[in-house]
Amino acid sequence: MINLSLPLLALNPIAFNLGPIQVHWYGIIIATGVVLALILSVREGQRRGINEDYFYDYLLWALPIAVICARFYYVIFQWGYYSHHPAEIIAIWDGGIAIYGAILGGILTLYFFCRARRISMWTMMDVISPALIMAQGIGRWGNFMNQEAFGAITSRAALISQHIPMWIINQMDIGNHYRVPTFLYESLWDLSGFALLMLLRHRHHLFKRGEVFLTYVMWYSVGRFFIEGMRTDSLMIGNTIRVSQMLSLIFFVVALVTLIVRRRRIDLPWYVNQ
């Protein structure tokens, strides 16, 4: 019988090898989240009368652009390093992408895509938002496999007291120190947001067009703001401002103000009636 009170070896971030190519669990987990998000978006899109091909076409554009923007975002805020190592800017396989960069890239792509297809961007964002936050929650487990996106040094006893499963606690032994599993906190927050949006999205006269998306922005921003404050690998402006906290605050305020203004000034259809 295995004694779970003793530390175990960290999980291998490499899932398997295809000849000289190493397939990482991170990529498998991210791809799983993307596929599930696509399936959910297509199903909801059918309810809204949106051609399912639009989602496939959008994904073909959004995925590479989101990855490029995620890398660009990361490089900008680590320019002190990359300005001296320009050859490493494209070395995305060594890590260094930021979810906010990916989200911004995805939204920018959606804007031009919806204009080209002459469909409502707000409706598309409403459809995609719950699936997106679900994919984000799943994707954080890629950080778990890579032993990244963690917080400050803590103790094994402190982690046990939070009723965290032992297989997660063992993976939080990083550099001979146990770390706060901020990846776990964010994953649970995201998946809770997914459950909430799925539960409330079709409630009669609760959301108007665009408000599912705005609720997603506010929910994610609140969680990311507080969880980012616990992380030790934050991108920084100077030595005091965490970039993701600053953006979370901005996004929350903008989403809240937009929701209030649209409710007061624009006669919008209810989401369930679109």
Automatic annotation (TrEMBL):
<feature type="transmembrane region" description="Helical">
    <location>
        <begin position="243"/>
        <end position="261"/>
    </location>
</feature>
<feature type="transmembrane region" description="Helical">
    <location>
        <begin position="89"/>
        <end position="112"/>
    </location>
</feature>
<comment type="pathway">
    <text>Protein modification; lipoprotein biosynthesis (diacylglyceryl transfer).</text>
</comment>
<feature type="binding site">
    <location>
        <position position="140"/>
    </location>
    <ligand>
        <name>a 1,2-diacyl-sn-glycero-3-phospho-(1'-sn-glycerol)</name>
    </ligand>
</feature>
<dbReference type="GO" id="GO:0016740">
    <property type="term" value="F:transferase activity"/>
</dbReference>
<feature type="transmembrane region" description="Helical">
    <location>
        <begin position="25"/>
        <end position="42"/>
    </location>
</feature>
<comment type="function">
    <text>Catalyzes the transfer of the diacylglyceryl group from phosphatidylglycerol to the sulfhydryl group of the N-terminal cysteine of a prolipoprotein, the first step in the formation of mature lipoproteins.</text>
</comment>
<keyword id="KW-0812">Transmembrane</keyword>
<dbReference type="Pfam" id="PF01790">
    <property type="entry name" value="LGT"/>
</dbReference>
<feature type="transmembrane region" description="Helical">
    <location>
        <begin position="54"/>
        <end position="77"/>
    </location>
</feature>
<keyword id="KW-0808">Transferase</keyword>
<keyword id="KW-1003">Cell membrane</keyword>
<feature type="transmembrane region" description="Helical">
    <location>
        <begin position="212"/>
        <end position="231"/>
    </location>
</feature>
<dbReference type="InterPro" id="IPR001640">
    <property type="entry name" value="Lgt"/>
</dbReference>
<protein>
    <recommendedName>
        <fullName>Phosphatidylglycerol--prolipoprotein diacylglyceryl transferase</fullName>
        <ecNumber>2.5.1.145</ecNumber>
    </recommendedName>
</protein>
<comment type="similarity">
    <text>Belongs to the Lgt family.</text>
</comment>
<keyword id="KW-1133">Transmembrane helix</keyword>
<keyword id="KW-0472">Membrane</keyword>
